[in-house]
Design brief:
Radius of gyration: 20 Å
Bound molecules: uridine-diphosphate-N-acetylglucosamine
Structural class: alpha/beta
Oligomer: single chain
Helix content: 40-55%
Number of strands: 13
Strand content: 5-15%
Length: 363
Amino acid sequence: MLKVINVVGARPNFMKVAPIMAAMKQRSSQFEPLVVHTGQHYDEAMSDAFLRDLELPQPDIYLGVGSGSHAAQTAAIMERFEPVVGAEKPDWVVVVGDVNSTLACALVCVKLGVKVAHVEAGLRSRDRTMPEEINRLLTDQIADLLFTPSIDADANLIAEGIPPERIRFVGNVMIDSLHQNLERARQSTIKIQLGLTAHGYAVLTLHRPSNVDHQDTFIRILAALETISATIPIIFPVHPRTRRMIAELGLGERISEMKNLRLIDPLGYLDFLSLYSAARLVLTDSGGIQEETTALGIPCLTLRENTERPVTVELGTNTVVGTDPRRITDCAVSALDGKARRWSVPPLWDGHTAGRILDELAR
Ligand code: UD1
């Protein structure tokens, strides 16, 4: 019997851990899984709604760290996670993604000599000003087993000198969640509530510090949105960080004048899936949404200068457009012109990644 601690902390972690937990429950003679929630995200809309939608069990242990500077948050997670690992003595700790909780928990494990596996290893934006890039680089250096979502990730790890025997190409576990929930998401009434018809709107998400913490950049993006929203309504579920920055940067009035840019509260997993899966276009600075739109064949414009997920550009529907208003609007026009671009689903984004992860953990 393998005792495994699965760590969740922030919104993009839940859809990666849910399929792994479900698979471990199905193989209960082999796995004894626990969920530890660091509390990095704690709002109902950023956390509880996802546990419910994804049918994740309530966490066995909640560390309740909350917000703070990167150092304070990372340190608080480490301090509170260490005694949990000491008491539970797991055979494996599984960390996912690239958030502060991922690195903090991996670091605790390696110092205690407890084996740690990183799911979604090897992605690199090569932009070290992104906090996530630092989390990825360091987590991959110290984890025992690295589960990669795409072949480019394997190449990145090899180039960093990581021995191939630590790397396993298993595919994208988030796509397991997507497959498992598409049918359930059809029951969501979010489009009706918002008075939307399928393919009659665009969806926007924005939360990266590089976009929303800088007035100049935020204003450049708003200029593009102003032009695009003259053609198509844009639905914008607003991340709490972004909500705060709109107020701090004094952008509220300008945004409220953009009648076709509709700000709504953050959505749960099923409502958001229902919303973007019927969108004509998605504009985002999220990592995961670049992958989800590629898996479903929805045009995606990434409002960043780079992506750690190049497979979504090479095979999928993603275009990295940066934050220049002209480039964003030009790319939006060609994405909206109705001529479908050729795309394919990347290898092993097949809905069976969790099973492959369990096989490797058990090996
Ligand atoms: C974190 C991740 C980012 C991920 C994002 C998804 C890191 C370094 N960043 O960024 O990779 O894409 O989550 O959402 O781990 N806040 C709330 N309620 C919450 C959570 C946050 O109000 O439940 C507010 C707080 O003001 C907080 C701010 O959002 O200071 C930022 O939260 P934080 O967890 O530090 O980073 P995110 O920007 O959410």
